[in-house]
Amino acid sequence: MKMVREMIIQQKTKIARDTFEMLLRNEEIADQAKPGQFLHILIPGCTLRRPISIADVDRMQGTITILFKVSGEGTAQLAYFTEGMHLNVLGPQGKGFPLQIKENGSILLIGGGIGVPPIYFLAKNLASQNCNIHAVLGFQKKEYAFMRTNLRRFVKRMSLQMMALWVRKDL
Ligand SMILES: Cc1cc2nc3c(=O)[nH]c(=O)nc-3n(C[C@H](O)[C@H](O)[C@H](O)COP(=O)(O)OP(=O)(O)OC[C@H]3O[C@@H](n4cnc5c(N)ncnc54)[C@H](O)[C@@H]3O)c2cc1C
């Protein structure tokens, strides 16, 4: 059963343009979290919880790392939360990625923007299974890019694409 829990913010860091990393502590969630799952975070004033992926777990410390980009009202408010404050969280939510990989097999991970954080947790898990990991990451622009150095620890080959998506408003 998914339970509502309090997570204490241990650290908040700005890691790229409009993008923040938070270290959250809750031993139960850290114990259960699997790659591909997310936290459903209650933001004061917002009716619906906002889903944010689990980017990393430290079970010994009982902590979870999340990364989020400010894209609207909820994430803008979340960016004001700081060390020592509590978050009301439902989770871990979702089934997670399949993790049964052939030993010494190869896998290609593709992620763009805020789709990159769950790839880190997945790559870390697959690397512990002796998997050959290749990654293709995409970001809007260089100033929005993050996690490249961290991912390189687990990835054999990595390609980085910068691609701004222009949406024509007259269509
Ligand atoms: C499973 C899952 C995992 C996710 N993991 C992450 C993660 O790890 N990190 C992360 O940063 N994000 C993640 N997201 C995305 C994140 O949940 C959203 O960015 C967040 O919920 C947006 O909430 P908000 O209140 O900030 O923005 P909202 O106010 O909901 O707005 C979001 C976007 O929609 C636009 N918008 C809002 N209302 C309208 C409207 N009426 N008409 C047109 N456009 C509108 C806004 O301009 C904005 O660009 C994930 C989403 C899912 C489903």
What would you note in describing this structure?
The protein has 171 residues and is an alpha+beta fold. The protein folds into 2 domains: 4-93, Translation factors (Elongation Factor Tu (Ef-tu), domain 3); 106-162, Nucleotide-binding domain of ferredoxin-NADP reductase (FNR) module (Rossmann fold, 3-Layer(aba) Sandwich). Helices cover 16% and strands 40% of the residues. A 7-stranded antiparallel β-sheet has the order 4-3-7-1-2-6-5. It has a 3-stranded parallel β-sheet with strand order 8-9-10, covered by helices on one side. The protein binds flavin-adenine dinucleotide.
Cα gyration radius (Å): 16 Å
Q: Per DSSP, what share of the residues sits in E-state strands of 2 or more residues?
A: 35-45%
Q: How many domains would you count in the coordinates?
A: 2
Order of helices and strands: EEHEEEEHEEHEHE
Small-molecule components bound: flavin-adenine dinucleotide
The count of helical stretches stands at 4
Number of strands: 10
How is the CATH topology of the largest domain named?
Answer: Elongation Factor Tu (Ef-tu), domain 3
Main β-sheet, spatial strand arrangement: 4-3-7-1-2-6-5
Separation of the first and last Cα atoms: 45 Å
**Helicity range of the residues?**
10-25%
The CATH homologous superfamily of the largest domain? Translation factors
Largest sheet: 7 strands, antiparallel
Based on helices, strands and strand pairing, what is the structural class?
Answer: alpha+beta
Looking at how many chains there are and whether they match, the oligomeric state comes to single chain
CATH class of the largest domain: Mainly Beta
Shape: globular
- Named at the architecture level, the CATH assignment of the largest domain is Beta Barrel
pLDDT averaged over residues? 92
- Low-confidence runs of at least 5 consecutive residues: none
